[in-house]
Here is the input.
Amino acid sequence: MSEVVYEETATMIAAGDLQSFVPFGREHCRNHPNAFNLQLRELQPASELWSSDGAAGLVGSLQEVSLQERERESWQLRKGCTGVKEDEFEEELYTAGNMAVWSQGSRTQASSVYKAFTVDSPVQQALWCNFAVPQNNNDAEEVEQMVCIVQSSCINVHTVTGKDFLSPLPFQVSNVWATKFGLLLERKNAANDTQPNPPGEPLPTVFSILHPLDEIAPIVCKPSGPFEGSRVQYVSDSNMKIVFTCCQPSIVVSYDTVQGTHTVWALRKVTHDERSMVLRCPTEPAGTPLGLMASGFLASHLRNASHLDSPGGSGGLGSAAGISSAFSSPLHYSALHSHPSRIMTSSPGVHSRVHSPSISNMAALSRAHSPGMAAPSFSGASRFNTSFHSPSPRGHHGLLPSLNSTANESMAMPAMEPIIPDLCVEQLWSEAVSAGCQREMSSQASKVFLTSDLCESHYLCFLVESHQHLRCVKFIESNDVTQLIFPSVTTIPAKDAAPLQNIDAMLVLEACGSLVIYTGITRVSKVHLPSPLSHSISLTNHLPYLSTPVETVSTPANAGSRHIHRLNEDAMPSPVSELKSLNIKQHEASFFEDFSFQQATPYILSLRDPVCNRVTLELSSGVMLRICIPEIATSELVKKCLQAIRFILPKEVAMKVLVKWYNIYNAPGGPSAHAEWSQFVTCFMTLMGYNTERLAWTRHLQFEVPLSPVIAAKKARPSDGGSDEDWDYLLASHYHRQINSQPVCGSVDPNNVPVAEKEDPFSADSPSSSSMKLESSAPLFPHIPALFGVLHLLYQELQLDELHRARASSLVCLLQQLARDLQLEEYVDLYWRDYPSLISCFTESCIIDQAVIGQMHRPSFLSSDPPCVFNWLSSCLRGEASPPFPYLPGICQRTKLLVLSYALYIIGDDNATSTNVWKYLLKLSAGQRSRVSEPNSRRQSSVKVRFSSESLAEQLVVWLTSQGFTLKDLESVPFGVALPIREAIYQCREQPSSDWPEEVCLLIGRQDLTKQAHKMTLAKSKASVGSGFSLVPPASSEADEEEDGMLDIIHEVTGLIWSQDLRIQEVRRLLQSSRPVRVSVVQQPEVSDHEYIEEKENKLLQLCQRTMALPVGRGLFTLFSYHPVPTEPLPVPKLNLTGRAPPRNAMVDLNSGNIDVPPNMTNWPSFHNGVAAGLKIAPASQVDSAWIAYNKPKSPELANEYAGFLMALGLNGHLTKLATLNIHDYLTKGHEMTSIGLLLGVSSAKLGIMDMSITRLLSIHIPALLPPTSTELDVPHNVQVAAVIGIGLVYQGTGHRHNAEVLLSEIGRPPGPEMEYCTDRESYSLAAGLALGMVCLGHGSNLIGMTDLNVPEQLYQYMVGGHRRAQAGASRERHKSPSYQIKEGDTINVDVTCPGATLALAMIYLKTNNRSIADWLKPPDTWFLLDFIKPEFLLLRTLARCIIMWDEILPNTEWVKSNIPQIMRGTFDPSEDINMDTMAQAQDYITAGACMALGLRFAGSANSDAFDCLYEFAKTFMKMMSFAGTAAVGAMGYYNLQTCLSMILLAMSMVMAGSGNLKVLQLCRFFHKRTGGEMNYGFHMAHHMALGLLFLGGGRYTLSTSNSAIAALLCALYPHFPAHSTDNRYHLQALRHLAVLAAEPRLLVPVDVDSLKPCYALLEVTYKGTKWYNETTVELMAPTLLPELHLLKEVKVKGPRYWELSLNLSKETQHLKSILVRDGVLYVKLRAGQLPYKDDPQGWKSLLATAVSHRNSGVTAFKPEAISTFTSEPALISFAEFFCKTSEGLKSREDSLMLFSAMLYECVTQECPEMLPTYIAIEQAVGALRQGDFQQTFPLWQLRLVVELWDGRMLRGLANKHDTLLTSEFLPVMKNAVDVALDNWLKDHSSVVRSYMRGEVLSRDAQAIMLACFLVYRSIPCFRNTQAKLEGCNSFADLLLRSSQLGIPLRDLLRLVPILLSSASGPQSLLFPLQAFSS
Here is the structure.
């Protein structure tokens, strides 16, 4: 048999089962209601419908249409790559008619439609394509999968995520190709396009689209030829046809129709130089294909729509001359309309029906974001204008002037430049032009594909059908990836071919009709198809999918014996007949006739749709069958061995072996999977020259699986039609006779082969010497040592994986045979130690002739000392140096990982994984292959490895993760090896770093961190609204409860923050404005009914003042608490101004006409109500332009609410998504409120980024920013105020010179001549001041480039008065004539300008501590001057001065009083005429100003000192108020006191913002109840704003003290509140909402990661030291508001309840910020044995507490039943359930139950549940050793590693005891048990050890097994060669001296002393040391 193997005998392989194939889409389309569509369409005018089809109005019968569709159908399949499912599936894209169907299905699942698309015109082509979408922040691109559906006039693009795009096509497209970058389009050539009109100027033919919204750009090419040089030019050769594109590598294959050659091009992005080279006008006119026309003709077409200036697109089609007239004439209109190519116009005015659904207008606009560019995607489209596909080159219907004559006059030359190309193709390789006559010219390739062979060479194949051959071009990727090298071309005769990707082969249909497999260019074998195809051709009514194989042909029952012997590849009865015309040999013909194959048998026409290893055969009868080509191996072990073989052998030999194996393995009727290994061994050993029949163990392998060629060729498919003849056939076989000659075996198990076998039964036939010789001519004979070496390393790799270890025992049989024959004793010894019982069975060895031994290549890595990975790791643990460990790149990945882990963690080499890798690993070089790229077969994760000062454990964990190592992998690492890794993980788990990526946290088992990291990565990818736990507001309890707009406060969290009372409900009650108020007026007897009604209504009017002020507070209270549903409008609670009067609950209404109600009273309140509703929307919500517009109310009364809603959307950042078109729309309506809301909203959304488009928008509304000559726009005054503030917001902090100058002059803008600027001038001046302050915010004196403006001096003058300066510059024109209404003279009107100037100074010098400016703001120190200043201005000055001197503000009453000037504090001289009122007022206002500054300074800090101080002042003022009725304090005084009190209340709520302080809440409630009298609308607004700030965002938000926040608060809390609801005189009401800009989320909510519920956790917050206090640490119980992050050093979750977790803020605050922004959710994990604070506030119920009380009996007191209360690990709970409870059956095993309970307790208390399996494994290993029932020594290896790790730790001292995992008494006990067991054995069986040392053959018994255990555990090296070293040793001392040579650890050497010295004294004399060291 051994010779037979080399002749390629029966090389035919069996294909998998056939299934008839019908594209799934066809079925789907059949059921699709297309017919209806057609009937519906008849109703539309035909010309419009069919203009693109050319079928001109003929709808035709439905039958015909479906026939047409059938002709047009096409489909393609690919391997599924969506979905996370591991199993592979196929995806099909089917097109027919107007439909495209994308379906998915796999072998296990039926196909189903994934997406189906129906488009307007017939689909020309549909393809998958991935577009790269650039991310906005960085260069990283995100790839989006899309389906592109090509129609004649446009391409529809649909992404998987659900976006739809529509790209119009400016020309007819012949073909579309998907590439790595996007789509390539080939332009259809018109017939006359080949001779272009001006000679030498063809247009580009290939274009690219990189993204559906990008422009179509031509492609440039860079030919590689000696003549052209590297001239870059457009691809404009109309003879070049693309035949193939590919993404990886990125290449394009094209065919030249004239020369008949194929060219390969590399496709890449165009470089900058090439771009400029193409765009520059070439010098020689005719030399290049684009001559001068680069700037002329082409450009005019590509550019003629790029001049759209106005949003209306008034430019039409750019500057081409006669277009507008052409459009206006009806004739041209219809001509245009019916022309098949449909002109794309970009003017929305002209019949917009033509181009596309209007949605893409929106897409274009939203992409553009500014009104200046109306529709870029269309302008791009029309650039290519129509002449690209015009029938005459003379222009299109006269649309464009004729080229020669007027091109230059009619088109303005300078405006054209060609379109910038995106992609470039660079020529890589071109076919040689076939010499000789034309007819030999090869035709265009009908199919091109990439394939690779089994040895990883890559080929580009193209099938030339006319020559019936397949050209395979080999290509190599050079070091520079962009360059491919094409060394050789091979031709294979073929009619058709298809690649089989995942088995590295291709299927070739030969001309004779047979299928052959090739790998690369090596022919492998024919394919035998199962079951004749006849039944599936007459597709009767049974389902096509259930084609059952009918086995008439294949059983030998009907086959005459004359054929059986000749089963070589010619005569296999293949059911698919070959074509008869090719002369068939005589016997073959008769063979077919026997089986009555008629001539009608279908043959295979072509192959299509290859996916993985499946391919469709198309038969001549039109039926399609899908077949599956088998893989090269299914068993993991065989796959790995083949990988190793391929790695080490030279390419040719490797290929031979693989092909040989493939044929044997897949022979028809091949083996079942479990026999695969035996088959592999036989094949492999035969190839090495073994006679497998003669070796006992391989012979028994064969007994399992018949391998003799006769039966192998027989079809062993389970056939129903088996017959007796089959059995006779078996009995007659050669193989049967052979088996009979052997004694029949009882069992196949090699462990108990009967000894009788050892006498070779064949010795009778042949001399026994030759029987065991190796055949030296065998192909693998020279390579035996190398192969043995790699398989040995593979064996070591398998040992490191628990899942593969079982296979190692199969491999060891093969290895031991090779090791014996190569006479490598040490290797055999190693194998014997691993599997003592197994190896003892094998004794045979074969002889290798000395003569031929020289032929063997001995590789260098095959050392005499066998590499053993456990040994290496063990010496590592003992701290001994060891040589680098050899490994196979790409195959032994686990070895590499673990060796380097030990090097890093145990040896402690920081660079083990980076620079010093080769100190520990020896990389094998491959056979004769030059390049070995190590495949990254492991999942490379996104973790960046960065080592700084991290501990070794951290480095190890991060490095392992970066290698793709997961917990699942760790479970498969043997327990001894894994222990150090587990230990490192345990250390990291205690003290993790907060910013580790998700994968690392997963590995260390901190689910809390994993979840946190996962949320961060999610957030980075898209702003999705929380995954897993997001704080979702509860559903409303009562269905009929009226919506009060405050339902969305999250009770889960507020219930934890304020668990003792119901303050949240109280706040809701105070702030609700949607229910009628209660009007209780007692009717006095003398009051008539009519007067009583009036009284009630007057009372209601007073109450309404309060109701109308509530929304401002409600907006702050519900801030950002709601995620809207995109399909529903935002619920806006009604503003209810009616009342109910008791006792009958009668309705009271203001509109009854009994009393006068101010007009427009509700305008502003409903605006505020809209803002409050809009502010609920959280910034992270999904809001888009359409939804904003969708909320627009139908009724005009609600317009004010909508205006407020728009402003709110700006404040939470969503208004940026509103399309420019809509903004323009809203502003043109001229509704004042809408304009105010929109301008303020847009500006807030673009805070401080100087956005140009917004600046333009605002400037239109500010006359001062327009040029003086511009038309006077009538802008309402309030809108101007809003626009001015908008400028301040958009330019905040930028110090923009021009705007500062304008705003400075606007503060003192004089009133104009007519009535303009005369009313409400104060608010405008204030707005200009605030805006100026914002623009120069905090710049202080270093205002760059503004020194000439003298900003501070000018402001000072505005503040104190003086002569007005002459207006400079542009505004002088405007203010020529003075006002006719107001006489101001030439002095500054301080009453108007002072507030703005004061606050501007305050903001410019904010926090600068500039004393000189602050002194300007001091209150005057003489009575005379004091009389001249309004008390209000004193408040502002004090406030301004204090916040300039920011650092001097102190939270105590002394500091507040220090602001009052000296003259007021002293005793008064009665003689002076002092107005006490003035003085009291001044004092009060100054105090209020100082309190306000204090509030700003400590905003959001909840500083108790500041709060106490403010509370004192509030109480003082309250006392003064109570005297307000008396004469001492007049009516005026009441108002002043109330104003000051309101300011102090606001200051208090600023300090306590978000904290919900009860004292402040009580004050607010007190003022809420006071209505009537002096309590006007403004005071209510102030008090409810205070309430809103106090509960900001439902307790989730608080205020920041950044500059920008202070500016916002100054605008919002300006101390002059409106007197009534229409009052905007001093301050625009809308600005009150800007307080939102100062809010920041600082609530940290701990969420239990297991239950996903918010919980309490103890935080430790460390403040950085400042000049006021040293570094301090405070403990807070979360959920809590954190202080401002810049003040903090560290936030830490403290134990012992929860796992510790520290967020270090000294490095960066970004991580914590992102947590706070996302609901502040911080995941925490309860430690095992702990209960949450809610259930166990004192901590008395925990597991450890019970253990402490019973110190001694911790374990016994532990009841396994109680486990569930302490840990949520399901594994632990079920372990307790099944292993730790005494049940009936387990009574006998009480002790082991106790042991298990103890283990469980240990794991739970030590927090390392993952150690439980390790404990159990150790216990089992020790138990097995005691009973001596080991089959293999693997568990002892592991025990040895565990003990060595433990010893190493103990030696280092117990200082770091908390780091080690095995701290308990468990390990010493187990260790002792092992020692005792082995010592006892040694005492009794020392003779066995002696005989082993003498090298005698060991008997097969239990002693041998124990001996192996002993040798392994005691780490005793192979002793066969130690006899020499022991010569002359006769004393204990000699032995000690030689211990280093022997390589035995001292402790173990002592145990061997008696045996080693057995020749000297008896063992008794040395008992003493034995006992001494046996501890």
Summary: The first strand starts at residue 12 and ends at 14.
